Amino acid sequence: MTASSLFKGNVALSYKRQDFQDFNNKVHFNILIDQASLATNDIRYFYNEIGKNQTFNLKAHVTGTLNDLTARQMKLIDSKNSQIVGNVNFRNLFGNSNQPFYMKGDFNKVASNYNDLITLLPNVLGTKLPSSLKKLGQFNIRGKAEITTKSIVTDFYMTTALGNIQSDLSMTNIDHIDDANYEGNIILEEFNIGSFTGEKGLGKVTLNIDVDGKGFKQKNINTAFSGDIYKIRYNDYTYTKVIVDGKFKNPIFVGKVFINDPNLFMDFKGLINLSKKDIAYNFQTTIDYANLNQLNFVKKDSIAIFKGKADINILGNNLDDLKGDVHFEHTSYQNSKNNYYFEEFSLHSTFDSENVRTIAIESEDIMRGKVVGKFKIGLLKKMLENSAGSLYANYSRNPIPKGQYLKFDFSIDNKIVEVFYPEIDIGKNTKLRGAIDSSTDDFKFNFTSPEIKAYGNTFDNIKVDIDNKNPLFNTYVSLDTIKTKFYKARDFSLINITTKDTLFLRTEFKGGDTGEDAYSLNFYHTINAQKQNVVGIQKSELLFNNFLWSLNQVDNDKNKIVFDKKFQNFAIEDIVLSHENQKVQLNGTLLGSKNKDLRLDFTEVQLDEILPELSRFKIDGALNGVAQLKQIDAVYQPTSSLKIQNLVVNDVALGNMNLNIQGDQSFQKFYINSSIENENMESFVADGSLDIIDDRTELDLNLNFDRFNLGILSSLGDQ
Fold this sequence. Notes:
It contains eight helices and 43 strands.
């Protein structure tokens, strides 16, 4: 008993007198420890291989010599509640250089964590634990272990904070444990491999794998493995029924993978280099079925089925110097709209002796063409911005390395567009070509297509020409017809030119079912001294319903929209549509997506001159008033106060109509108060609310009629 330790039990020594000459190997102990509280600092006086400043409680029956000591029914609990319960034999704890350490244990329980265990165990054991075990957190082990200074043989079951591990493994070269050799079988149950390896896309895995290799850290792993992966979580999807047979030598995987998951049937054979510095893929794969929606690779299509064969052979350091070949064949893709089949698709990336890159695409079903030049893919957007911005003195240029340029020329097939954008169809012989040069900020672009159908709209015979250095015009756009659900336009043309730091645009087209409407619109774009975009309207004319309207009739410097480079904040300044004494005026601001203040004013607007022709109703009257929308964060304040003087419907004079609407803060419920006065009496009153719930409109209105002329509904009975 000492100041820090307490021992209760029986101790018996068996020896001959001459045995004291070799005390460690010949004097036999028989120790029955009923209760002991031991401080490692006291033990270190005799055996300094154990950690400092630790205390533990111990029960055991210890027999043998100091260099061949067996503890049966041992129960050790330290001050941090680490536990070791079982039978263990230690050899050569006090051995000389010719007596290597040996331990064999059969443990019912080892409960601890990495940091606590290495301080509790003798140094000869603590230094043999792989540092990667730190990530396991608190663990609990039962099983067998046989340890020497050079090797470890284990057969154990472990529960950890990351999941369960079962191992029948032998390891050698444990002097350098993080680079040790190992061979055997590993079973993981719901083990979070992503947390253990630091790969964010990975999740839990359940597997049974035979391994033969070396290394416990990612940088020095060199391991052959084969077996079954029953479940593995990746990209928020759990894959099942995966068979692997390969070798991983960081950062290269070589081998075979067979997947028979309900949403992915795939065979893989080849090499993948996962290095962040050296990208290399050389493999062949056959994908019999891949549901990309269920696998979380495609979200915009509820149906996204991919099938095909691929042969990939590419290498490089990043996307900018990647070279090689990609070849697909017998490929199909099914989305909600159709099933698309592609016979072949090849992509080739090469560099010549002057480092000029050519990316060529070859496919009769998808796209044909190439890009040639010296360029960094990540800078293409900034190069295009510089080309457009070079027209303005106030433009702040993106820094681009010198010598960046490219030329491109492509023919596009409709099928590939439909795959990614099912709502869009493009006609055959759609072509685009052009060039970008960062040194001169030149940008040339030409696009032609016989037809494009998009989101229910049709555009016929489209031609787009852009040349930002052309002295006559920078952009010319023409279309034969534009058809929408609400309006038709034909003979559309747009041309622009830059003068004195301002881009001027003029567009002309005809509209309406018979083409009797005519539009001549003039706009401009510039960048002001505050580096903001300014889009303004110059005096423009609109012939609509045989009435000539004007935008910015006085041709002032108002009638404009000012917005920032990020397209987040907008200021709308006095946009005025007018005809004789009639006027519609729009003002307001939009600050981000959660703050709005918009106001639309109507002055003496004759409804028959501005409303489109309706087959059943003819409406006339003078509209005055204001409609306003305010939003501050999630709080809306929509209001309108409108009056229609001398309202006439289907040649029936109804009187003067008042319409007041006020919305609630959620922008889903609207309170309506409306009345029609005719000869000093209210012939019609509507008072109540309108709710928009789950895309349904629900009305709760009290309607009062007094001598209301129902003749306005006579057209509904026409045949």
